[in-house]
Amino acid sequence: MTTSDVPAEYMEVLHMLRQISRNGSWPGTSRRRRMIIRGSEEETLSDSFTIGLFPPPLRIPHTTHLFPSLLDALTRLEGKIAPSRTSSTTVTVNRNAQFVPHKDSGAGAGQSKSLIVALGDFEGGELMVEGRKRNIRYLPLEFDGWKELHWTRPFQGERFSLVWYTPKGLEEAADALDKGRGWEEVIESVGQLDPVKMFRRERMEILLSPPRSGWIQSQGFSMVPLNVNFRSQITRMSIYSLEHELFATNVLLPEGNSSCPIGFQGRILFDFDMPASLLAQLQMCESIRAVLLHHDYREDLEDNFSMRDLADWMVDKAHWARGLRVWEERELPRDTW
To answer: What pTM value is reported for the model?
Structure first.
């Protein structure tokens, strides 16, 4: 199916999905979700994220603030392809994901029927529901993912799929969306704080130091983090550029050894208010504003990883730094430190 064959109502969302897929800002998949995605040779391109709301006391997904325009577009799309359906509070977005037979579980437990549709340029990829094959390429389908066993048939090409639903406990929020209220008002009504605003009110302190290695400096790093023993412990850094309407700053990910949680991966946006004294070794950074853009933390945190968790973790580990330029992911020499 070529671009000219894409139904008009899907073009806005498809364009957005392709854009975030190509610019590197596509969020990662939680460990629980990865367990039901069939492995492939292109593993890094097969993933899933959730956007919208989770029922209290769960935190709002970070993607809700990362991709506000996409969330609005998804809400509009649901209204166009299923006009008689009450607006959903939550959407799962899948990219090239072939799911093994499963029933839905997790934060959305208890909601009624889901609405699913696939889009993109692909062949195959039908949805199997209790053994029945259903073509969902630009053909939306309602089904009960919590009670009915479902999976994805093999496919070739670029395949996105969208699943709208409303978890138990968010019925009033869904009704508010259905009446045309905006997402900001709905989020406030269910008591889920905007993590951006919440974190910006916090006063944070972390230990930073100019890099001791000329090689590190040559890569564009002005400061490196220190652990509680005042030793730099980072073994790898990754820099990502971010296209987002709210931010125009480079993004830095440090991943370290004993001073950093094993398996931590993420994108953190930093905006330092840097006094001149910050350039001195071991000085405190008195004001940090950060937005958690992506995480793959310990399994017990997963989608519930909050800005408060991040704040406490930063103070405890004191191991973040700022990157000045965008670079490809590089392995640092072992003798760097």
So the answer is: 0.57
- Going along the chain from its start, the domains and CATH numbers come out as 3-192 (2.60.120), 198-331 (no CATH)
Burial string for 297-310 (b: 16+ CB within 10 Å, else e) reads beeeebbebbbeeb
Write out pLDDT tens, residues 55-111: 876 778 878 888 889 999 999 999 999 999 999 999 999 999 888 888 876 555 556
**Dihedrals phi, psi of 12, to nearest 5 degrees:** -65, -50
Rounded Cα–Cα distance for residues 24 and 31 (Å): 20
